[in-house]
Structures are given as C-alpha cells and as structure tokens.
Amino acid sequence: MNIVGDFLTRSALRFPDKTALVDGEISFTYAQLDDAVNRVAAGMRALGLVPGDRVAYHGNNRWELVVTMFAAIQAGFILVPLNVMLRPAELEHILAESGLRLILTTAEGEATARALQGRFSYELSSYDDAGGLFAGWMKGGGATPEAQANRRPDDILALFFTSGTTGKPKGAPIDHEFVSHLAHSWVIACRYTSSEVYLVMTPMFWAVAPIHGILPVVLAGGTVVLMNRFDLDKCCELVQKHRVTSFFAVPTMYTLLIDKKSDALAAMKSLRVCSVAGAPISAEVVSKFESLTGATLLNIYGATEAGAISREMLGAPRRPGCAGTLGGTIEAKLVDAEGRPVPPGTAGEILVRGLTAIKGYWQQGRVNPASLPDGWFHTGDIGVLEDGFFLRIVDRAKDMIITGGANIYPAEVERVIAAHSGVQMCALIGIPDRVMGELPVAYVVLKQPGAATPEALEAFCRDQLSSYKVPRHFVIVESLPLTPTGKIQKVELRKIAGQTAAAAAAKRS
Ligand code: AMP
C-alpha cells in the first residue's frame, strides 16, 4: 500500500463525482483528479525517476502543484516544495542539499530555476510551457493504479526547507507515518467530512497548505479551493462563491480581515471552523473573528519539523491566549537552560519527539538522526503548561522574527548587510506591529560616517533577499550593545528600540 497516496485513491472510489479541487474556472472531480495524478506520475516515471528521488514544484498556488504533489506521493518520490520568492543565492543551498532530479516551475520562477540549472543536473520544465513536460503528461495515456509505489511508514514523503538560527535552510524530512497521523488528527479536531469546502490561503511551499490542509481534506473527501496568492478581496469572494466552510490563515491575515473586511466577515455564514498557527494571535482577534462569522477559530501550535504540537479541538475545552492542549502522537517536555524539566506552571523551552516529529534533518541524502543529538526536536519556543494541560506560548528562545506569518532568520539578513563595504556591524530585530506581528528593523554601525545611507542599504538587500526579509527600517547607530565576549545583546537592543519608539510616540502626541 501507499499510506498517504491512498488518501486520494480511496476518496476517488468513494466519491468519484464529487468536486475535489477548484482553481479559478478549472475544477476536478475526484475521479478526474485521480486520473490526472496517474498521468503525471506515469510521466515522471518515464523520465527514469525511481522511488526516493526528489522532485520539486516551484510556483504560486495553482492546480498543477496539487496534481504534482499527489503524483509524487503515488510514485514514491520525495516532494520538495520550493519558495518561488527565493533569489538564486538563497535557493542554491537548498538545491545542493536536496539533490533534485526534476523541477516543475512556473513563468514567475523559471528565470531563477534556469539560472542555477548549470550547477545542478536537474530536469527543468514549466507548467506554463504548452509544449512542456507537464502539458504533455496531461495529454498522455493514464497509468494503472498498480503502478503505485508501496510506501512504508518511515519512507520520506516530503522535504520542507526551514532556516535554522544560523540562517542556512535545513531540510525537514516528513515521512508517511508523520503525515498520516497528522492528517487524521486534523479530521478529528475539525470534524472534517465530505461536505467540507476548504480554502487554501497560504503558499504551498510552507507545510501548512499541503500537509495540514489539502491532505486531511482529501482524506475526508472534501473540496479544496485554491487561492493563487493571499488577497483580502479574493478571500471574501471565494468564501462567498464556493460556500467555503473552513480555512487556515496566519494571525496577520485574521487581523487584516477583521480590520478591513468586517462586513464581509459578517456575511460569511458558510464558515464553520477555521484555524491559525505560525505566530502568536491575540485572544481579542480570535473572539472578534468568531463573533463576526459564527465560526470557531482553533489555535494550533506547531512547526514544520513537528506537525501540531498542541491544538484546540472542536468540542474540547479552550483557554483564551493558549494554543490548546498537547496532542496524542507527540511527546513534549518543557526544560530550563540546562535541559532539566521545569516544575509545572514554570516557563521552559518546548522539546518534542514522536510519530509526528522529524527523526533528524536531511543531510547528505538521508535522514541523519545525529542532527537531533538528544533525540528531541528543540523548538526554540518558550511555553508554560497551565494546569498541566493548556500550553501557553510565551516567547521565542531563538531570535527568529515572524512577519505576517513568514519567518525571518536574523543571521541570514545580517550576513547580507554585513557584506556591504560601508558596514562595520549590524543586528536585525523584530519590532512589534499590530498587523504584521513583527517588522524587521536593522541596526547598523558604519565603518565611517556617511559610508552608507539607509536607502543604499535597502537597495543592497533588495538585490539579494526576498522582499519580505528586507528590513523595513535601517537605523544607523554609533555602537551596538555587546556582551563581554563581543556578541550583540539583542535583548538590550530590543529595549533600546522600544524606548526609541516610545519617545517618538510621546513626541507625536
Ligand atoms: P514554521 O516551522 O515555519 O511553521 O514555524 C514554527 C514556529 O512558528 C514555531 O517554532 C513558533 O515559534 C511559531 N508558532 C507556530 N504556531 C504558533 C502559535 N500557535 N502561537 C505562537 N507561535 C507559533
């Protein structure tokens, strides 16, 4: 059997004529989706790819990505979702680590994928090329279901690249067991049935849309509606048009919806259950969204490497400001700086292991258990277990900045700024922002006065970084607070930034 591949084949047997996937004017019934997936899987196999080979999609959300995902799963390949916003310099390390055989790209991604093709030996084709591989496979003959690859629980299904604190992306290998348990937990927590109509709002290179969204809904036999890229008007239009019952969004999207679209939200009577993760969300935003729509908004705390660590569930007790309760297929412990478990009710770093956690990062073509030295995944998040049950996320041990649900790893941005000829030293911190959660701000010490301007530094960063990582402000300072060993004290810098913001606000009022 093919554990996760069977989600689709079985729903196609149960609900052949039900709508499985909608993308604009294009839609597929379950039978049609299964057929398309078999064609594409056969096409990929005909290229000589064998189970375990890595294949990537590279583009904004569209139906071809969903077909590619299921085809890769059916054929036993490892899917590597690539972020189409990444510039060649950012993508290079991911390509070197993943050893891709095939990239299926889009008009918006083709130049980047082509720029790197000479350095790696992958096959490259665009969905937007009418004479390309994908278009040819869709026209070709189907494949027999027997051609499905058998997959064991520990066979890797996808590799998601997430940046560590060093700023170098690391491959998180997700296996069939992980996905199967996670998908079933979503179906239980949200009570998904074949009546579900689920809107995909987040980009498909992040694990949430494919792993936490599309797969559980297909398992239940529901309908998946795609949004190409997040857009407030489009979101409201699609919910109305398709009578959407469920979606996942990051806190920024909820804040924007209640700030700018409260009338439209009040008309979203089809919504039943929505979910949020990726960054802290205020209890006020949750209750406003729930009272406007009448839907329940479930808070889930998770990570690419560890699925859903804690979650709220329909019908289960909830506590405002907490991310629900610990889940069943993952073991968690809270520890102090020395790694000792903290007493109940005390803040500690959250460590996890279990069926829905990685067993190691992808290194040199395999899962390397030694990359998790003590066998636990260290989340870098600080939490408190209230009443031994409810998990409240209080802080991040790591310096990661989350802006609009997207992670920015300061080390990566700092490396770019520091390479500017006029820069002596720099530090990136997140400053609180009501809509985006946090905004990246760079504090820069110049080699000599006038060696660079904020504008020049911004242009320099824009050349090398995706736009969401480019600092919103560059503050030129004479020095940065340092520890005795010369490390920048970010805690101190955040305090200074807070005082500067407060002084500026006082001046304005
Ligand atoms: P990612 O691997 O990109 O999904 O990012 C995972 C990180 O997002 C976690 O380590 C947390 O820092 C943050 N995060 C995820 N869910 C929540 C939540 N419900 N509340 C607060 N922070 C969260």
Describe it for me?
By secondary structure, the chain is an alpha/beta fold. It is built from 15 helices and 26 strands. The longest helix is centred in the last third of the chain and has 19 residues. It starts with a helix and ends with a helix. The mean pLDDT is 92. It binds adenosine monophosphate (AMP). The site of adenosine monophosphate has 18 residues, from strand 13, strand 20 and strand 21.
Keywords:
single chain, 509 residues, alpha/beta, Rossmann fold, GMP Synthetase, Chain A, domain 3, 9-stranded mixed beta sheet, 4-stranded parallel beta sheet, 15 helices, binds adenosine monophosphate
Which percent range fits the helix content? 25-40%
Strand segment count: 26
- Uncertain runs are none
The number of distinct helices, counting runs of at least 4 residues, comes to 15
Q: Identify the bound ligands.
A: adenosine monophosphate
Report how far apart the termini are.
Answer: 66 Å
- Level-2 CATH architecture of the domain at 1-228: 3-Layer(aba) Sandwich
Quick one: biggest sheet? 9 strands, mixed
CATH topology name of the domain at 1-228: Rossmann fold
- Looking across the biggest beta sheet, what order are the strands in? 2-1-10-9-11-12-13-14-15
SS-based class: alpha/beta
Brief overview, please?
With 509 residues, this protein is an alpha/beta fold. Helices cover 33% and strands 28% of the residues. Adenosine monophosphate binds next to strand 13, strand 20 and strand 21.
